[in-house]
Amino acid sequence: MRKIAVVYWSGTGNTQIMANLVAEGAKEAGAQVTLFTAAEFQAQQMDSFDAVAFGCPSMGAEQLEETEFEPMFTSCEHKLSGKQIALFGSYGWGDGAWMRAWEETCRSDGADLVCESVICNEAPDTLEQEACKAMGRALV
User: Fold this and answer.
1) pTM of the model
2) What is the mean pLDDT of residues 107-116?
3) N or C terminus of the chain with fewer C-beta within 10 Å?
4) Residues ≥6 apart with Cβ < 8 Å to 14
5) What's the mean per-residue pLDDT of the chain?
6) Radius of gyration of the chain from its Cα atoms, rounded to whole angstroms
């Protein structure tokens, strides 16, 4: 049974909804899933999971949340090479530049992005909810 971590930060609850849907999809596909907030996850835990989904909304000038999520993610970067990961998050403005930059960082770190990232404007609609579940299945 594959072990999947879903690690997220959410300010308004939208990214948390997405995280729960990613976890649901992975569980439906037969994985053992652990859901973490950014504050609960540390780089050394990366080795305990076959794949990791990271979720963070766009903040400020289209960037990752700076207080909890970005420091946690930065500490994990040296563990991304060869690791299967997926990225998701919500936004309230902009055009997704934060996600494109984040994907490029992951590729530069050698991560294996298992599927297209999922972004949604505010709360996920029906199509975005299904995309989150499909992401979970892709991680398995």
Assistant:
1) 0.97
2) 97
3) N
4) 57, 90, 120, 122, 123, 124
5) 96
6) 13
